[in-house]
Amino acid sequence: MTIFSKIVKGEIPSYKVAEDDQFYAFLDINPVAKGHTLVIPKQEIDYIFDQNDKQLAAHTLFAKRVAAAIRKAIPCKRVGVAVMGLEVPHAHIHLIPLNEESDMDFRKEHLKLTPEEMQEICQKIAAQFE
Length: 130
Ligand code: AMP
What we know:
The structure is a single chain. The chain is α+β, with helices and mostly antiparallel strands. It has a single domain, classed as HIT-like (HIT family, subunit A). It contains 3 helices and 5 strands. Strand 1 and strand 2 form a beta hairpin. Helix 2 packs across helix 3. The longest helix is centred in the middle third of the chain and has 21 residues. The radius of gyration is 14 Å and the shape is globular. Bound molecules: adenosine monophosphate.
């Protein structure tokens, strides 16, 4: 079972931003920007393009709703979208509030946020999710 499946099952804690019956969105634990969020299918699928067309479309549309909530909750110019999957073999879309290009540089030093800060960001985004 992937670490993300354990998060979906509640076996590992996460800062949940949104969910429905198929998808789950939560804050990245090692964010490159405040509000860095991951959107995953609850079903354990390795890579985003391993999903069939219907699943992929639904995943993208759910991520779109999460991005809209991030946009309202976190001041930013754009919400950047990235897929890597080099670390966790469970399909996930990174959504990252951007003000400049370097905000999406995964090689730079990541933010060190307190649990209280993470909780506050999480609640702000969750409150905007429609
Ligand atoms: P990648 O698979 O290369 O797209 O990277 C996986 C991402 O998942 C990284 O940005 C990690 O910080 C993030 N991550 C790994 N474990 C957790 C976790 N338990 N909770 C939240 N984010 C995580």
